[in-house]
Amino acid sequence: MAKPELMDFYVILFSHYGPRHWWPAETPFEVIIGAILTQNTNWKNVEKAIDNLKSEGCLDIRKIVEIRKERLEEMIRSSGFYKQKAERLQNFCRFVLNEYGSLEEMFHENTDKIRKDMLDLKGIGHETADSILLYAGGLPFFVIDEYTRRIFRRIGFRVNENYEDIRKLFEKNIPKDVGIYKEYHALIVELAKEFCRKKPLCFDCPLRNICKNNSVV
DNA sequence: ACCCAGGGTCATA
DNA sequence: TATGACCATGGG
After folding, report:
1. N or C: which end of chain A has fewer CB atoms below 10 A?
2. Measured in angstroms, what separates residue A85's CA from nucleotide B7's C1'?
């Protein structure tokens, strides 16, 4: 049996977990808000914050810019790091309005420019930028997070620590399909939540067979 | 009382 | 380049 490739893991994870329906949001803008609020924070805490924004009618790019920062801080308090996140949200929204005019306009621009612009903003790192590009913009950028690194390192892939290198490794070995990109990252998170810390990855996880046959764990 | 979560920045060496 | 401190709430 040949060494399993990245798509083999995808097939197994998908058949085990089924579609994940990521990202859980009603609009691209809501994806962006969530992507920033969920930084190093449990998603449940983010949901509360987003509910607050919705019920106050503030889930809107212009609203976020207009309201007082202190009010925004209170609405998103449950998501943690609420002061810097309020700052980051307003900063991001202000930039989009000034530079592009609207979110729709932004996503019609050259994708590499969008990514570069976002990475220049304070509070937008590689993972957040790619989450926004993929799940809000529907653009083919594979999201690499700490789960992805851990899991594929333990499976036996020689992933070095450089974000861009890992992302290109995945994008090179996976069909350039936004649907697959979205699903794959969501499946990795699902697997990680269940096995990454609690148990050895390949003991009774969905990947146990493919791992054992190749003696990689 | 700890540990951590769907990260990122900044100072230091 | 590579660690470490820091940001902060809420659930286990």
Report:
1. N
2. 11
